[in-house]
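Subject: sequence -> structure tokens, single chain

Hey, anyone have a minute? Need the predicted structure for the following. Not urgent.
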Amino acid sequence: MTSSDKTVLNEEALRAIDGKVGAHIEGAHDGRGLRIGVACARFNGGITQRLLEGVFEAQARLGVDSQDLTVAWVPGAFELPLLAKKFATSGKFDAVLALGAVIRGDTGHYDFVAGECARGLQDVALATEMPIVFGVLTTNTVAQALERSESGPENKGAEALETAVEVVRVLRSAALQ
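Reply:
Had a minute. Here:
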């Protein structure tokens, strides 16, 4: 969900790029044959489960075979980067999704957990050159987390799988090889 219609990428403007550059690369949404590791956080696990259901809803649409998905659970969002790194360095996956929810509370704990989770996942992506998708909700309220994990096209778990497939396809494009 975007905050404004003005933030949406205009498809006509995107097509106009083709005549202005030597190569214009976009990722396809074809997940056939891709192996995806899904790192899930148990803390706020009801939200994580809803995000995971979003992954399952999107997988058929994207052509990802259920046998090519591996799901593993860790205690919380803080532990997701380590699991993502293990997935990424195993040689068994093309991309990793990190799913969880960090909901702001009355203390500063939120800032440390959310920030370090994001930094850790980014570090893994850069070190391994593998798509590590940040599917961790960072919300102010439980209601916001529930909204972003509802079944349907706005589910951030589904969006995470779409992102993974698209980034793998961009990175594998002939222009970047």
